[in-house]
What does this fold into?
Amino acid sequence: MEESIPISKFKATCLRLLDEVNKTGKKIIVTRKGEPIALVIPAPPPPKPKRWVGSMKGTIKITGDIVSPVLDENEWEVLRG
It folds into this structure.
């Protein structure tokens, strides 16, 4: 599943060959005077974006009561008037 091509052919058809590698997934060995000098392989797929819902799970520590009001109802100025 590898193709070996001389550097002169690679230079002349670089964009087409890169598209071919991307579409087919096959590797291309670029040679100079019959000796391999480069290996062209498809790029890995991009990572999936992380889900933001639940991404902070386990990072917060709750200390104390988070349900009850901070002040007693008798201390609220809004209720006095």
In short: DSSP finds three helices and three strands in the chain. The first strand starts at residue 2 and ends at 6. The mean pLDDT is 88.
